[in-house]
Please model this.
Amino acid sequence: MSSEEIESLARKLKGKTSKSMNSTVILVDPARVLDACLSVASFEGFYHLTTITAVDIWEDIELTYHFWKGRSFVSVRTKVSKKKPEIQSIAASLPSAVLYEAEIRDLFGVTFVGNPYTGKRLLLPDDYPDDLPPPLRAEADPETIRKRMKLE
Amino acid sequence: MSSGKPSEEKSEAGAGLMQYSPESMMPFGPVHPSLKEPEYFRLVLEGEKIKEVIPRIGYVHRGIERAAQERTWVKDIYLFERICGICSFAHSICFTQGVEALSKFEVPRRAKYIRLVVAELERIHSHLLWLGLVGHWAGFDTLFMWVWKDREHVLDLSEAITGNRIHKSYATFGGVRKDLPDDIKDKLLAEMSFIEKRVKYYDELVSSERTLSVRTKGVGTITQDAARRLCPVGPLLRSTGIARDVRAEDPYAAYDEVPPEVQFRTDGDIASLLSLRMGEVLDSCRMIRVAMEKLPSGPFRTPVPRSVPAGDSAFHVEAPRGELFYYSKSEGLSSPARVKIRTPTMANLLTATEMLKGRPLADVPIVLTGMDPCFGCMDRVSVIDLDKSKQWAFTGEQLREYGIEYYRRLL
Model:
């Protein structure tokens, strides 16, 4: 995708772009993420979703969907508030996202509405305490987790 | 085992890509010693054929991404290279290069070539290991023993260059930790000739040997359309005819000067994977020769400052199993704020479940090994037979024997 195409897509989605090294990031609201991902993925050759990255940024969880072709990544980025960490799943249209979303659900507690992986957990143990914050959140304390799960 | 009753297993049975009644859920067991995340599969059978496969992972989840946030940047190199014993160097160069890009650290040309040579040696050792495993799972233990003996030559080279066979602790920010030994070029070239000869023999052997061909031709086929939807990586992707390889498409280290001849096949089955990986080993041997001929002189490392500026970087390399991805975020502190890792096996998991659909139970070991998952053996398999409304558990060994017996009857 050329930078003009990315800019015009960002404008259409009422988002912004930012460029860092090999990545162009399109920053959008959570409600526009599905549209953004479908637009990028349908662009010639950009069908490959490398992964979805989640980062705890204090009050929010930032999600980045990385698409790769050639020498660059075109990524869609958004953030969801920790008070209501919910976003529409993209897995119905982009099936490769299923496990990446399930992983983020386990480790960050973000709900991907419509994600077909219906199991309670993908990679956390079943007896991970429900009242503790998900382990990769900043407020999660490894010592507390270990004590509660009787690992020491 | 019970029949027609909900699984005796605990609520792990709850995981599912589709909703199935508890009676029809068949867990398929985890615990793989050499894997980052041993996988656990539920198989739903109808008659002899697999109808649905549901993965559940995390049995050796070590909290590495969290641990990385509490260690310094340099210590994290040693943490990440221990994620996997087979593609350890791929992890370390993916992480170091991502941070180098972020920090704009310069890596000398000689170091880039050395990284290429060690990375290709790792690819050879990984594919040979895999070939041995395929032999083992198919009941062809002689192949397994021979291949792993040849692999020792590669591990000896790794030890001669880096000091270690597996976790090489060789890459660092700004280059590699020590230079190549003076006498290594002749040793490398001699061993490359040896490996090439052996691999050509194995290539012929596996394509002509009936025990293997009946279990691999037309088995576990994926189409290009499925590949575009499910986004597998590495040899699994290239076996469908989509010739994407990070080394060629988005070159790093010295791959812009010593590019790979990207191997691909078109049948998308396990037999293609066998032939493809052998082709990759031969190409790696070629690349090592070329790199050693063109090896530039100069420093093997640039001294770099201890701090990493704020920012984030997305970087990927072509590990033996496919695209390995690292996202690193720095807030200018001595530890990373976040490192997100997506291993190739994670990307291939979904495709592997597709490959199993419609296949008989006996194909499970070969197909799962075919995707070259980062695990050595399956500890326990549970199978649910919808028709007979019963379920039972196989150990990995029992499943392997079941598969061998099943195909022996066909021969």
